[in-house]
Amino acid sequence: MPKVAVVLSIAALVIVVAALAAAGAAALARLDGAGYPTALKQATVAFAAVITLATAVTTAIVQACC
Predict the structure, then answer these.
(1) Is 35 left (phi over 0), alpha (psi -120 to 50) or beta?
(2) Residue 17 contacts by C-beta under 8 Å, 6 or more apart in sequence?
(3) What is the crossing angle of helices 36-65 and 3-31, to 10°?
(4) pTM of the predicted model, to two decimals?
């Protein structure tokens, strides 16, 4: 598999995982009785946290091996 395809596949996987985490955070917030704006804010924070974590892990791996 070409390197570009691998990178794009992993990027797509990270975005899907981040979206699932955001949906889970929003659902839990709504179950807890939060309003839609609060649930959306918590979903946004969860999405950003997953993307930030993926970026940090990728940076650490690149610096460790190259």
Answers:
(1) beta
(2) 50
(3) 150
(4) 0.88
Classify residue 64 by burial, with Cβ atoms within 10 Å: 0-12, 13-18, 19+. exposed
What is the spatial distance between Cα 15 and Cα 32, in angstroms, rounded to a whole number? 26
Residue range 11-66, pLDDT digits in tens: 999 999 999 999 999 999 999 999 999 999 999 999 999 999 999 999 998 898 87
Cα 34 from Cα 36, distance rounded (Å): 7
Which H or E run includes 1?
none
Find the distance separating the first CA and the last CA of the chain, reported in whole Å: 21
